[in-house]
Write a structure and sequence with these properties.
Two copies of one chain form a homodimer.
Chain A lengths: L5 H18 L6 H8 L3 H7 L3 H20 L9 H18 L1 H10 L4 H8 L3 H15 L8 H8 L1 H12 L12 H15 L2
Helix pairs in contact in A: 1-2, 1-6, 4-6, 4-7, 5-6
The structure holds a DNA duplex (30 and 30 nucleotides).
Chain lengths: 196, 196
DNA sequence: TTTAAATAAACGAACGCTCACTTATATTTG
DNA sequence: CAAATATAAGTGAGCGTTCGTTTATTTAAA
């Protein structure tokens, strides 16, 4: 029996993500993807049941990879300031190393696909970060807060900075680049808000 | 000469926003929209050159309305804590009164349309909020910061809370509702971070 | 030879958009 | 004051194209 050409599946996934990032979900199509990946449309249907499953699997795999990456060198037992810094660094580094992946997820987060995706993902990620928050509270390193309030203050500013960086400008500056110094400055503010 | 039926144009816009919010940009189509709005497809082309212009104009008008709303009862001369509270309240109230509008903009923000839209919008909004930041700095009510860092800390947490509210859950809670109390709690943290 | 991988070609459905035409109002005419 | 005319609003049907998906066939390794 003829073996699968791994390169072909990889190309389908790679070009799929590229296409959605560059042209949006509405600019994405199976026939177009097949041409870009150098395969027949029918080949795509060997790997994926339909268009929806293809997109959903792309989401799941990328999100999974990102979450795994963000837990590198991290443990819920870490002191609050140290643990949050690791989280921020991991997220930034993932973005710097895989900008397409992060843009892809940011796009998909606001589509109907993401609902299904977040259900399919293991709750491992939320559990670990929830534990980290509770530990920090018990150690007196973090003011007691509802999880959503905590999350909004702890992570949303970072993602907003990344968003500014991706679009290359903000409301008043016509060009903007994110660097370590800006990130540290922002993280310091966040820590000031969250520490007792 | 026959007068325009204002109701028809209004329906086109209203149903257009609804359709994109419910089915996403890829689920949006002119023929479908015409059916939903109770008009002929050709009628849509009386008001809009093509699909792209229709979507762009929807974005511009909604974004414009939102920005105007967020400046209600606000002046760049306000004290920092007071001015930021007005901004937060205005944004939350706009969301509560026009949830579809805000969902619509949040979706469109991550599409290729938004780039064109943000160019077409008056810079008035950024100018006023930039002035507010500088005034607050001079009064010693706000730590000196690059605009993007300030913005990320000052507003991103609110939008993250609204996002949690829209999707009805977060990473660890299966149900979540945003209320005034949670918002005040979050705003207090943000002020703590930004005040000298 | 057997088997799954891969394809070229083509399917019906849906797409954005246009055309020939009708409808409704404002204006002009007798 | 009708009746005729002018004009923009609005329409249903259908154009060509692209969509997601399938079928019939070939290819390549076990």
């Amino acid at each position: 029996m003829r073996p699968r050409d791994e390169y072909k599946e990889q190309q389908i996934r790679q070009k799929g993500i590229e296409m959605i990032v560059k042209e949006g979900l509405d600019g994405f199509g199976i026939n177009k993807l097949a041409k870009a990946a150098g395969v027949s449309p029918a080949t795509i249907y060997i790997y994926y049941k339909d268009k929806e499953e293809l997109i959903t699997r792309l989401c799941i795999d990328v999100a999974d990879k990102m979450m795994g990456f963000s837990l590198q060198n991290f443990s819920p037992q870490m002191d609050f300031a140290e643990g949050l810094k690791v989280q921020w660094d991991n997220r930034l580094n993932y973005f710097l190393q895989h900008p397409l992946d992060m843009e892809f997820i940011e796009i998909m987060r606001y589509t109907n696909f993401y609902e299904k995706v977040s259900q399919m993902l293991t709750n491992n990620f939320g559990a670990i970060l929830g534990q980290f928050m509770r530990n920090a509270e018990e150690k007196g390193q973090l003011v007691p807060l509802p999880f959503e309030v905590y999350w909004s203050v702890a992570y949303a500013p970072l993602y907003q900075l990344i968003k500014f960086h991706m679009q290359g400008n903000s409301y008043i500056n016509s060009s903007f680049t994110l660097d370590d110094k800006l990130m540290d400055k922002t993280l310091k503010l966040v820590l000031k808000a969250l520490k007792p």
